[in-house]
Amino acid sequence: MINKSKYISKYNKNNVNESNYLGHLLLRIIISILLFLIVGIVCKTSIKGKEFIYNNVFNNNWSFTAVKSFYDKYLGGVIPSNYLFDDPVESVFNENLVYSDKNKYLDGVSLTVGKEYLVPSLEDGIVVYIGEKEGYNNTIIVQSMAGIDYWYGNLTSNGVNLYDYIEKGNLLGSANDKLYLVFSSNGSYLNYEEYLS
User: Fold this and answer.
1) Residue from 131, 126, 197, 118 nearest 159 by CA
2) 185 Cβ contact partners less than 8 Å away, ≥ 6 residues apart
């Protein structure tokens, strides 16, 4: 049974005055509109400005986690969680990766796991891909806050949605017998031994 009393003080501490919240939300909306208008004016009036924005937005690989970190640091969450939930939400599943054997596989590693093994996330991050990858079957890619992409392949079910923010140890899905892991950054594959304990 969950002891609610240990969360009450934390909940009350994080509770925000409603008028203060609405003021901050209005300020964020105004800042967003101003940024949109400035970018639109720069694109319309300056060829160099348009090329700069086009090259940096469309040609570069944006890190979702870097954008989220910047947003959280300077603008905070759009809607505080205490406005959405009556009680603080805590994940029930918080596990470490357990496997009996590991072998080099394509660009990463193949881990021997049990039947219907529940796969935990190795790091905090954002789910940036869910789908089939050649050689890896059903795959979930989580981009960590450090910008490293963690691929979890050969999953039989998914426990997350695209663009979900997950924490280390949270459930990603399940795998039967084999779990494939790949670690990459900026298009280069990394040595899996550095990321497995």
Assistant:
1) 118
2) 147, 148, 149
> Helices 18-45 and 47-54 meet at what angle, rounded to 10?
120
Characterize the bridge pairing of strands 165-166 and 137-144: unpaired
Are residues 52 and 132 in contact, defined by beta-carbon separation less than 8 angstroms?
Answer: no
Q: What is the pTM of this model?
A: 0.60
Q: Which pLDDT tens digit goes with each residue over 36-65? A: 888 888 878 888 877 877 777 666 666 666
Residue 144, strand partner residues: 125
Do the bridges between strand 108-112 and strand 171-185 make them parallel or antiparallel, or are there none, so unpaired? antiparallel
Residues 6 or more apart whose CB falls under 8 angstroms from that of 63 comprise 143, 147
> What residue spans of the chain are helical by DSSP H?
5-14, 18-45, 47-54, 64-74
Instruction: Say if residues 123 and 110 touch (Cβ distance below 8 Å).
Output: no
CB 170 within 8 A of CB 140: no
